[in-house]
Amino acid sequence: MDVWPELAAPPRRIVSLVPSLTETVCDFGLRARLVGRTDFCIQPNDLAGVPELGGPKNPDLHRLLALTPDLVLANHEENRPEDLEALQSAGVPVAISCPLTVTEALSMLWRLAALLGVPERAQMVDQIERAYTWQLRAVEAGPRRTVFCPVWREPHGPLPAEWLMTIDSRTYVHDMLRVMGLDNVFADRPRRYPLAADLGQAEPQDPGTRDTRYPRVTPAELVAHDPQVVLLPSEPYAFAQEDQAAFEDQFAALSAVRDRQVLRVDGTLLTWAGTRVGRALRQLPALLAENLQSKL
Fold it and tell me: Distance between CA atoms of 255 and 155, rounded to whole angstroms?
């Protein structure tokens, strides 16, 4: 459940523990109020003077508290509950969100604009929302294609993959793909525990409270699903040119490889739920239209 604190006044000292929200704060015209960020908050490019506090999952809480923020922006998935609880116990207001669909990301932007006291930014959010509506109408008129989008691979580098991690239907990436007219071939495939079970080599155990949205699939399982399109994002695993070459060599029998429908893509357009949604709605349709052929 999202957490939106009640503030007596708009915050003047903001710490962001989420790269997409750091960018959003700046897009909302509040760069001067940003007093702390993670090491992974690299957009926009003019953040050199904002202190780095460690990664999203290991922030330096002592340094963070010394900055005396009156608001910390966080994410249920990217940040550890114990860190957020420690900040709340110290009396720091923490806004926690975790959009799992593009619609939820838009709702978050409306709430965030109100929380930060920038109602004039409603026009920006409204424009993004309109672009979303037009994109949905555009894909209704065209053919849909099946897609595989890995977010990790083992081992790293140009060696053949032993397994690839991907996403199911309960993720933001899945919904962004849907909006682009692409149907995730592993939408209904949950992650199983332990790894051997996920790879079909053992009986699965009760996952308990562990996250089951990111299945690890074998090369044989991928071949069986035979996606028409493969997108290799730049994050969280940075698929480079050598990774694409290794993928195409290993999976030469896939329809996507035979038809030259394997494309590397800026991962932030698929994973960052914030004002980057607007960039995604502009850039992804053009990128797909330019690089992917209709092979239905």
Answer: 24
